[in-house]
Every structure is written in C-alpha cells, then in structure tokens.
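Q: Mind making up any chain with structure tokens?
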Amino acid sequence: MTYTDTAMNALRDKGDELADATVAALFERGEVGKFNTLMRYVSTAGAPLPDGLPDVAREYLHATGAPPSWVDWGEMEKARLFFLDNNVHISTALSFASMPACYVIPHVAGLLSATHALKYPSKRMAETGQFTVYLMQPDAFEAGSRFIPAAQKVRLLHASVRHHLKREGRWDVERLGTPICQEDMIGGQMLFSLLVLDSLHRLNIHMSVDGAEAYFYAWRVVGAMLGVDQEHAPEDLEQARRFLDLYMTRHMGPSEEGVLLTRQLVDLYEEVVPGTFFDPVVGALIRYLIGDTSADWLRVPRTAWDTVVRTLPSLLGVLESIEDRSPLGAWALDRIGHLTAVFELSSLTRGRVMHYAVPEQLKKEFGVSSGVPRTRRWTPPAPTVTS
C-alpha cells in the first residue's frame, strides 16, 4: 500500500466497528459493571463463559476467540524463539523506546492521560509486559492460554475510551479524527514491532533477517486481533518503515502530558534499580534510543551518563559474539536474560495477574534466537522521510 497524507487522514476517521458496537450496547443497557465482574473469571482461552454474561459480550467473545485464519504457525514459532533469545533486550526496547515514542505524540499522550492508569504507571507497563509474555508462550493460541482473552479485553478497553471521549464531547473529532483511530492503532503496532527492532539494532544486538521478520509478523497477528484493519496495515518491514516515518513526522511534538508520562516512567524504573547511583542511566537510555530531539521534548535530563550509555552497544556486541560462538555462553546469557526479564515483570506486577477492564469513566481533566540461526544479520530499512 502507498502511504500518503490523504490515505492517513482517511484512517483517522475509522475505529473498530465490532468492539465499538459491543461497548456501546453494554453502556446503553447498563451492563458494564456486571461485564467487568464476570470477565475477571475469563482468563484462559477455551474456558466456559460464566453464566449471566451479557449476550452482546458473549457474541463478541465468540467472534474474536480465534486467531486470524491466515496465520503462518511456522513464522509464529520463529517469533517465539526470537523472543526467548532476546527477551531482556525486547523488554528494554519496549520500556525505553516504544513507550517514550508514544509519549512524543501529543494526542496519544493525551489519550493515555485520560485514563485512570495515568496515576499507576507500573500497572500500564506491567500490562504491556504481561501481554507480550502471553503472546510468546508456546500455547498462546491454544485452549488454556491467557493471550486471547487478554487481546479481547484490550480491544474492548480501546473501544470504551473511544466511547467516553466521543459521547462526552471531550475529543476534537473534527481536528483529530476518531480517538484511537486506525492510524493510531497501526502506529502503535509499528512502535511495538519495528521500533523495537530498530532499538535492538541500535544496541548492537545480533539478529537474523528471519528472526526480525518473524517478530514483526507476530505483531501483525496481534494487530489483527486488536481490531487493526489489515487492508491498510503494513505487510512487511519496508512498508512498516514508510508508515512509521510518515506517522511520526505527521504527529510528533512536545506536550505537557508527554512530559508527565515520561517523568513517571523514569521514576518507576529508578525505583526498580537498587540504590541511586545508577538512576540517571534510565534517562540516558531513553535519550540514546529515541534521540535528542524527542528526549528534549519529553524533558529527559542530560547527564554524564549519556556518554557512558553510548558505550553500551560495544559491550553488548561482545556479549552477543560470545553467545554466537559458545553454546555454554549462549545458555548462560539466555538464563541471565530470562531471569532479568522475570525480575522486571514481577517487580512491576508485584506477582499479580493484571486484569483489563472497561473503564466506566475517564479522568475529568483530559486535555487534548536460540532456535533461529543468526546468519544474514538484519539491518533496518532505510528512512523514507528526510528531517
């Protein structure tokens, strides 16, 4: 598909018809509270739905209870192995590149600020991390998995935000289009896929072409399950580069909501890091991964650690080379990476399973691989928009 301003503008008027109709019916019938209560018992795929679940919700869950028919399971297995091999690096990229990149888009930062989750950044990060872990389990799409119910709930969460903002007149539809529109949903998919791969490349993580393409493919599947119109979503990394470059140049800029969200993100991870000596590393890593312009917009402070962090790719490159050459080294580094990722997620979730619910109201003050050979090293598609 050819991405132009005209094509992107058309995507700003589109939401998610199925999820939007479901949420509208739940609110019209006053069944949101009942739905949220019962959905806490729907946490695994294939489990019987609870008695008393509203009919409209039951129909939605049946309609969205299976992955797209076009899924290539071989590619999904490659993606799972890629994730296992790079889980700590992917978590780093999601936390310090993908999330800050969301915050540098003013209307997206405003949307995040409109929900009560603004006061609980650890909950927002934990939900993102848990969602990704669910996706990369061997049984992610089988009976008993937690991924499909999580995707179904996230899709309804997005629809509920659209419902509130449009119904209450707290969103400038004429200027901004539909809240959480197709352009923004595809943009989010690119930030969690292509930008993660870009960040891994910037950190000098060794990736094969097959591994990178499989990881992007997995997020295509996720996008479809979250209501992204596949007719307009990028099909490969080259199309993804064209979309993401145009999307960011159309929308990125400074905002007070973006600054506040970034400050909360930095504070959160500074609490996770023991002591205070290494606290500036968090901001330095964000600055390194998203660039000085975006970091300045988000008011990420400049420190002496900015220079230190620039040496990180060299260190990681050495470790990656050890992993490439030594099976024992690969095993040891994989175990360290796994334990680090588990520690980070458990610190954010505090050992709990995060539940996704349809919010009944918004904030009042809204203002806007070990299994994949590392041959043919992957390099990002070239930028398509000159600065």
